[in-house]
Each structure stands twice: as structure tokens, then as C-alpha cells.
Automatic annotation (TrEMBL):
<dbReference type="InterPro" id="IPR022419">
    <property type="entry name" value="Porphobilin_deaminase_cofac_BS"/>
</dbReference>
<comment type="subunit">
    <text>Monomer.</text>
</comment>
<dbReference type="Pfam" id="PF01379">
    <property type="entry name" value="Porphobil_deam"/>
</dbReference>
<feature type="domain" description="Porphobilinogen deaminase C-terminal">
    <location>
        <begin position="227"/>
        <end position="299"/>
    </location>
</feature>
<keyword id="KW-0808">Transferase</keyword>
<dbReference type="GO" id="GO:0004418">
    <property type="term" value="F:hydroxymethylbilane synthase activity"/>
</dbReference>
<comment type="function">
    <text>Tetrapolymerization of the monopyrrole PBG into the hydroxymethylbilane pre-uroporphyrinogen in several discrete steps.</text>
</comment>
<dbReference type="GO" id="GO:0005737">
    <property type="term" value="C:cytoplasm"/>
</dbReference>
<feature type="modified residue" description="S-(dipyrrolylmethanemethyl)cysteine">
    <location>
        <position position="242"/>
    </location>
</feature>
<dbReference type="InterPro" id="IPR000860">
    <property type="entry name" value="HemC"/>
</dbReference>
<keyword id="KW-0627">Porphyrin biosynthesis</keyword>
<dbReference type="InterPro" id="IPR022418">
    <property type="entry name" value="Porphobilinogen_deaminase_C"/>
</dbReference>
<comment type="similarity">
    <text>Belongs to the HMBS family.</text>
</comment>
<feature type="domain" description="Porphobilinogen deaminase N-terminal">
    <location>
        <begin position="5"/>
        <end position="212"/>
    </location>
</feature>
<dbReference type="GO" id="GO:0006782">
    <property type="term" value="P:protoporphyrinogen IX biosynthetic process"/>
</dbReference>
<dbReference type="InterPro" id="IPR036803">
    <property type="entry name" value="Porphobilinogen_deaminase_C_sf"/>
</dbReference>
<dbReference type="Pfam" id="PF03900">
    <property type="entry name" value="Porphobil_deamC"/>
</dbReference>
Amino acid sequence: MTKPVRIGTRRSLLATTQAGHVAEMVRERLGREAVLVEVTTEGDLSQASGVPLAGSSNTGVFVGALRDALLRGDVDVAVHSLKDLPTYPHDGIALAAVPLREDPRDVVVARDGLTLGELPVGSRVGTGSPRRVAQLHALGLGLEIDGIRGNVDTRIGKVRSGEYDAVVLARAGLARIGRLDEATEVLDPLQMLPAPGQGALGIECRADDADLLGQLALLDDGPTHAAVTAERAVLATLEGGCSAPIGALAEVVEGEDGDEIWVRAIALSLDGGLAVRMSASGGPTDAVGVGTRLASEMLADGAARLADRLEDRLEDTDKRQNA
Ligand SMILES: NCc1[nH]cc(CCC(=O)O)c1CC(=O)O
């Protein structure tokens, strides 16, 4: 008998559900037993204490403790929401598989079944994500956007209690915990491009665990892996040249001469007043190249100056207000 695969996960309902899904795939496709091992992360502790966590989606606060457990040998596999994984590689750790992803779009959960467009001017919308804040402002609906903390359940509860008129969440998160019926609108990517990797899982193992690496490859979905690779290449390149909020979405589609990868991306000022939006396509085997070229073009076309230009605008506003 081989030993069960120990799958490391954060403790939240969403995380354990996602890890449970991976355990199921390990049993079915690898024919091996799997057990979940809960690991407390810095991000969870901070969330519980209510201390604000700046830039939590990109700095990997939810990721570190899981990777430490992996490197210590406490677990064999770590399951992450791919959008929470930093773009740079981690020594000794390999991204072994990216399974078929859920619908990557964002959803609105609003009071009284409302859509964003139906919310009255001045409605209070909760989101802590700069990407969502900026794109919500860019819609020009006069919504008041306020930071919000806590897990998916807590956020929905704040709409129920009337503290917020609406919140914006990843559709995938709601779907995974069986709460999709709470969504009152699915946002079109034309209005709200998701975070790079949104809706996908990243399955990591130790880079020197060759047997497991080979087995986990059975859980990989090629088109999803190519799409998130392109999205993360966009993010990695834009991060190098600007600190603006970023959205990106890629898809592998059947073209006339075989598969093609399509990528669209946006970088915007936090106030949503300025945006650089572009798309690119190419071969799915060149996902990194397509994403990198797209982001370089965006930087050359003004994404690199978004932060400066935002400061100029704020200065102009001050002058107007003082006049
Ligand atoms: N930011 C936290 C986070 N990380 C992954 C998900 C949901 C699942 C996913 O996007 O893959 C969420 C919640 C949300 O953004 O609503």
C-alpha cells in the first residue's frame, strides 16, 4: 500500500472545499488515498484579528505557511487559489498542475436582487480589491466604494444586514461553497476583467518529488494552464513597470489553423479615471510570450505612467477645489 497523499490547505470553508476537490481528483485519477491537513496562515490570523491587510492578493500572505509546510515535509501537496499565488517562483517548489477552472468572472451580490446598474447613486458597495475598486469607479455609476474584510460568508452577511448595498466577489468562490444563488448579477469581463488566475487552482509539490510531480500532471488541464500562464505573464510584466490595479483574462479557442490563445488585459488608475485596455493573441504554446508582449505594449502605451498621471489629476482637482 502506498501512503496517502497529504494535501495542505488553509482552514477557510473555501480553501478546504477546494482542497477536498483536489483530494477527490487524486483518488479518482491517481488511484491513491488522500487526506487534508489544515495549516494556519498569516493571512488567516490577520483576517481573524480584523487588522487590515494591504495588497493581500499579490503578496502571498495566504501562501507562505502552506509552502513552509510543504518544504518541511509536513504535507506532500499544497492547494492554492491561483490568483493568490505570487508570480515569481519559490525555491524548491513546483507548480505541478492547474486543473480545469471554474467560470473566472466576478459577480455582484446586491440587496433586493439588484444589478450594479440598478443601484441608486451613492449606494455603498464593498470590496477591498484595488482591481475591483478601479473598475467599479470606471463604470461612472456614482457608487460609493468601501473596503470590506472577511471571508465570502461574512461579506454576503454584510449585504443581508444592510451594512452594504452590494459586494463584488469571484463567481468561482461562491460556486465552490454552494452559494451561487446569492449572486444577483454576473459581471461581463467588458466591465470587470477578473484577476489573473481567478477561478483556477494551483497545485504545488516539492520540486524534487519527481514521482508525485509526474502523477499530479494527470490533474492538469492544458487549456486552463496555458490561459493562466498568459494572464500571470501579463501580471508579472506589468508589476515590473507599474503599481496600478490589473485585470487579465485569457482563453484558448479553436482557430482556423488549430488552437489559439486570446488575452485581454486592463491597467487602471485606482480612481478608474484612466485605463489602458488591450488584447493580443498567439499560439497556446507561447502563452508566456503572448502575455509578456501584451503587457509590454500596455506599458509603452501609458500603463507605466498611470500612477504619475493619477497624481497630476489629483493636483488638478485640488487646484479646482481651491479656486
Ligand atoms: N481574494 C481572495 C480570494 N481568493 C480566491 C477567491 C475565490 C476563488 C477564485 O477566485 O479562484 C477569493 C475570494 C474572492 O475574490 O471573491
